DNA sequence: TCAATATATAGATATATTTCAATATATCTT
DNA sequence: AAGATATATTGAAATATATCTATATATTGA
C-alpha cells in the first residue's frame, strides 16, 4: 500500500466525491457515475483511473460497462495506517 | 476544519515528514526542522506555511526562533472526520 | 454487418505546485 | 550601532495536474 499515492488520490474534491458516491451506491457504471457531475466523460475517466491506480477502487467489466466499487479493505487499511504513522 | 485543505496539505512527502518529525520531537524551531532535510530554508518555510494555514501546526514565537508543533487536536479531528465522511 | 452506446486514450491548454536564489525583516550579541 | 542568526517573502523556472475536444476501442443490438 502506497500511503502517499493514496493520500494524493484523496486530496481532490472530485475524487473524494467519487469515493463517497461509490460508498453510498455500492457498484455503479462509469456512465452512472458521470451523471453525478457536470464534468466531461474523459475527466471522470481520468479521476477514476487515479483512484484505480492506487487501489482504492475496483473495476469489474460487465459487457460494455465497467462496474466501479470501493476497495473497502484498502480504504480501512489506509485510514488505520495514516493514524499509525502520524499519531502513534 | 477544511477537510480537503488538510488532505492536500498531507498529500506531500515533505510535509508528511515534517509532521512526523514534529510528532516525534514535540516543539522545535524552523532551523532544527531544516536540519532534517536537504531542501532549502525557503522551501521548508513554504511547506511549514501550508501546514500552518490549514491549522495542522502551531507556531509560537520565541525570540528570533519560531517553535513549531503539531495541532494534535485538529489532527485527531481530521482523522476522525475523514473516516466518518468516507466509511460511515 | 452497421449503428449506437460505453469507456479509454491522445493531445492541447490553463492552472497549480514545488523549488531555489535573492532579498527583506526581526531579533540577538557584542 | 553593527554584525550575526532565524525566519519570511518575492519572483522565476520547472514540473505536475485538471480539464477539454477529438478520436480510438470495445461491446451490444438491430
Estimated structural class of chain A = alpha+beta
Mean pLDDT of chain A: 97
Give the largest interface pair and sizes: A-B, 19 and 20 residues
The helix content of chain A, as a percent range, equals 55-70%
GO molecular function, one term (chains A, B): DNA binding
Pfam families (chains A, B): HTH_5
Keywords (chains A, B): DNA-binding, Transcription, Transcription regulation
Domain HTH arsR-type (chains A, B): 1-88
Tell me the layout of helices and strands.
The structure is a homodimer of 88-residue chains.
Chain A: H1 3-10, H2 13-25, E1 27-29, H3 30-34, H4 41-53, E2 57-62, E3 65-70, H5 72-86
Antiparallel strand pairs in A: 1-3, 2-3
Chain A binds a DNA duplex (30 and 30 nucleotides) through residues 12, 14, 29-31, 39-43, 45-49, 63-66.
Amino acid at each position: 500500500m502506497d500511503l502517499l499515492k493514496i493520500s494524493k488520490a484523496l486530496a481532490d474534491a472530485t475524487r473524494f466525491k467519487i469515493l463517497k458516491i461509490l460508498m453510498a451506491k455500492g457498484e455503479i457504471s462509469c456512465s452512472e457515475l458521470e451523471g453525478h457531475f457536470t464534468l466531461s466523460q474523459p475527466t471522470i475517466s481520468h479521476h477514476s483511473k487515479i483512484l484505480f491506480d492506487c487501489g482504492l477502487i475496483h473495476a469489474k467489466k460487465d459487457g460494455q460497462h465497467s462496474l466501479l466499487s470501493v476497495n473497502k479493505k484498502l480504504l480501512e487499511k489506509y485510514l488505520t495506517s495514516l493514524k499509525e504513522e502520524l499519531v502513534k
